[in-house]
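TA notes, week 10

Several of you asked for a full example with nothing omitted. So below is the full record: structure tokens for the whole chain, then the designed sequence directly under it. When grading your own attempts, check the secondary structure regions first.
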């Protein structure tokens, strides 16, 4: 009881730029300053299998670099983000699908 449902994040956009894949968003209306965000992604060849991104769990910033989390180098992917504050969370908001092509510059 007393858990506020946060409004969804806004302007959720998946950008593909310079071989990087970055999800950006804006805070929803009335967010507390210490809200955090969690991001997951899925690829079009494995729909409804949302993959976790360890470095984008409970983050304070409003972007997530997915590049090194993606396993397949040539596939359409999309991401989703939700806001979390204490025990309250927002609904997930999905991005559009984006073609992903990487030259594999990710270091372990």
């Amino acid at each position: 009881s007393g858990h506020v449902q946060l409004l969804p994040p806004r302007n959720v956009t998946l950008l593909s730029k310079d071989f990087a894949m970055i999800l950006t968003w804006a805070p929803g209306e009335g967010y507390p300053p210490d809200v955090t965000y969690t991001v997951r992604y899925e690829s079009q060849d494995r729909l409804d299998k949302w993959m976790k991104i360890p470095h984008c769990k409970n983050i304070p910033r409003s972007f997530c670099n997915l590049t090194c989390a993606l396993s397949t180098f040539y596939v359409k992917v999309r991401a989703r983000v939700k806001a979390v504050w204490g025990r309250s969370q927002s609904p997930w908001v999905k991005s559009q699908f984006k073609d992903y092509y990487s030259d594999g510059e990710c270091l372990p």
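The CA atoms of residues 2 and 28 lie 19 Å apart. Use that as a sanity check on your answer.
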